[in-house]
C-alpha cells in the first residue's frame, strides 16, 4: 500500500472497485478519481500513477479522464468552492449578475479567456478561502438562478443578495401539491405531507408491492405489459420502452445489464432530480422490476456528478432495500439476484447520450459510439446486451405493473400514452414541474393556467418545448396538425401555439420535439441573438470533439453569435450560421450534432429580423491572430493585432517539423 493513501481511503477504493466485474476494473476509474479528489483536493501526478497502477492501467488512461471531465481538478480550489449556473434559464434570471456580485464580495479577480468565453478556469480568491466557476445547467431551472456551494444547491439566489449563500445554509423551496390539470402518478408523493424518503414511509404506502407482483409474473408477461402500455422513453428520443426491451433475447447467454440514465443535463429539464431526492425507493422498485423482466442481474445508476446529494440518498436507499431483501441475493425468495450500484459522472453533458454514458461507465472518455454496430441492446456495457432507460421511464414501469399496461395506455393519447413530467422555466410567474397526461394539456394551458402566465404581464414571444436542443416555436406561428375527429376520421387542422397538445407527435408535427420535457418560455423582452448565443455556448463547451462538424461547427456558431452581440455582426452572418447548422445535422456520430444545430437553424429561420438587426456590417472585423490562417497573415491580406503569445506548435506545424 502507498503510505500516503490512508487505510480508510484505500478501503473505500477497494469497495468501489468491487462494484464492477473483476475483469472490468477500469470502470472504477471515475469513482476512484472522485474519492481521491474528495480526500486530497486535487488530482496530481501521484494520483494519476497511483490510480493507474491500482487498476492495472497506463497513467495516460487516467490522465485523459482528468482532462475530459470538468469536475476533476488538477489545481486546488478554494476552501469554499462555488459553482454558478450560466445556462439559459439561470442566465435569464440573473446568474451573470450573481457571478459578478460573488466575485466582488469574495475579492476574486475572474480570469477571462476569450476562447473559453464564460467557461474560464476556476478562479480563486487571494486568501484561497473561495473559488468560483461558471458551470452548465444544474437541473434546477425552475428555481433559477442556482449555485452550488461545495455540495449544497442554493436555489432562487437573489443577485443583489448573492453573498448570503456563503453564510446561510441552503434552503429547499417548498414542494407544491398538484395543479388541478395535473395527473400525478410518478410525482404522487412529491409535496405530500409527512412524506419521507426512508423505506418505512415507502412500505407503509404499499411500496415494493409491485415488485412482489412482478416476481409472480413471467418475464415475457412483464415485457408484454410494458409494450401494451405504449410507454415511450422519457429521456429525450421517445423510443417505445417495450420494443427496446424486446431486443434482449430471452435465452441470452451473455450477462445483460440495465443502466438507469440519471445524467439529467439537458438544459430546461429538472424532473429526475426530484424523483431521486424525494422518492428514491420508487426508482429502485422500477429498476428491480425492470431487471427481473430483462434477466439483468446488475444495474448501474449513472448519476451526474453535480448530484452529490442525490447519490448519497440513493446509496442509503439501496442499503435499506438490500436489508429488506428487495435487492441482493434471492430477492424476496424468488431465486433472482440483482445488485444496483451508483456510478457518478463528473460533469459532461455528453454522458447523457447512452453510448457516451456506456464508455464513461467503462472508465473512458464519454465518446459516443458509432451505431451500428454499437446499439446498446446488442453491444452495450462490456460489449454485452444493455438497456439504458431514463429515471422517469423506469418509474413508469412500476406503475404499469401496478395497474396493467392496458389501463396505463388509457392515460394520454394514442401513441402518446401515460403521464409525463414537464418542467417549465424561464419567463413565467410560477415555474415548476407538472405531471400531465401526455397530450391532454395544451401549451397554452401549461403556460397560462399551470405556470401562471408570463411574468410582469409581458407577452409570450417564443417557447423551446423540449429542452434547449428542441427547435424554438414562435408565439404567433400556426401549425398544421392531423387531429382525430369524433367519427374517428383524421382531418388536418390549423392551430396556434396555445392549442398545441403537449405530446410527442404533436410537437414533432409542429416542427420541434417533446424531448426531455423541459419547456423554456421566452417573453417579448428577450433578444433572440442573446438567447441563441447562450445556447450556443452550452453546445460549444459540451461537444465531445470526436466529429469535426460538431466540434468546429458548434464553436463557430458560438463565435458568430457572440460577435453579433458585441456589435461586429456582418450581413452574411445569419446565412453563415444557417449553413454551419445545416452542415452539422446528420453528419455526426451522435445526436448531439442535431441537438446543437437545431437551435441555430430554427432561431435564424424564425427570427430573421432580429438576426439581421445584429448583422449590419459589410466587412468582417479582423480575427484574433490565433484564429487567422497563417498564409493570410503572411500575404498581409488581412489586418491582425500583434501576437499575444508565441503560437509554438502552430509555427512548428507550418514548417513541417512535427
Ligand atoms: C446529447 C444527448 C444527451 C442526452 N442526455 C440525456 C440525459 O441527460 N438523460 C437521459 O435520460 N437521456 C439522455 N439522452 C437520451 C439517451 O441517449 C437515451 O436515449 C435515453 O437515456 C434512453 O432512455 P429512455 O428510452 O427511457 O428515454 C441524451 C441523448 C443525447 C443525444
Ligand atoms: S456529434 Fe458531437 S458530441 Fe456527438 S460524437 Fe460527434 S463530436 Fe461528440
Ligand atoms: S439549473 Fe441553471 S439553467 Fe438549468
Structure notes:
- The chain has 658 residues and is of the alpha/beta class.
- Helix content is 38%, strand content 14%.
- The protein has a five-stranded mixed sheet with strand order 2-3-1-4-5, with helices on one face. A five-stranded mixed sheet has the order 13-12-18-14-15. It has a four-stranded parallel sheet with strand order 8-7-6-9, with helices on both faces.
- Helix 2 (29-40) runs antiparallel to helix 3.
- The model is unreliable at 639-658 (pLDDT under 50).
- The protein binds flavin mononucleotide (FMN), iron/sulfur cluster and FE2/S2 (inorganic) cluster (FES).
Taking pLDDT < 50 over at least 5 consecutive residues as the criterion, the unreliable ranges are: 639-658
- Percent in strands: 5-15%
Mean pLDDT across every amino acid position: 93
Bound molecules: flavin mononucleotide, iron/sulfur cluster, FE2/S2 (inorganic) cluster
Gyration radius, in Å: 25 Å
Distance between the termini: 41 Å
Tell me the total number of β-strands. Answer: 18
Global morphology: globular
Counting DSSP H or I runs of 4 or more residues, the number of helices is 26
Estimate percent helicity.
Answer: 25-40%
The largest pleated sheet is described as: 5 strands, mixed
Task: Write out the strand line-up for the largest beta sheet, numbering strands in chain order.
Answer: 2-3-1-4-5
Structural class: alpha/beta
Detail the topology: elements first, then pairings.
Layout: H1 7-17, H2 29-40, H3 45-55, H4 59-66, E1 80-85, H5 88-92, H6 95-106, E2 123-124, E3 130-135, E4 147-149, E5 152-154, H7 164-167, H8 199-204, H9 209-215, H10 219-229, H11 241-245, E6 256-262, H12 272-278, H13 280-294, E7 296-303, H14 308-323, E8 339-344, H15 354-361, E9 386-390, H16 391-403, H17 405-410, E10 412-413, E11 416-417, E12 419-426, E13 432-437, H18 443-450, E14 460-464, E15 473-474, E16 478-484, E17 490-496, H19 504-509, E18 518-523, H20 528-542, H21 548-565, H22 573-584, H23 592-606, H24 608-613, H25 630-634, H26 649-654
Parallel strand pairs: 1-3, 6-7, 6-9, 7-8, 12-18
Antiparallel strand pairs: 1-4, 2-3, 4-5, 10-11, 12-13, 14-15, 14-18, 16-17
The structure holds flavin mononucleotide (FMN), iron/sulfur cluster (SF4) and FE2/S2 (inorganic) cluster.
FE2/S2 (inorganic) cluster binds next to helix 5.
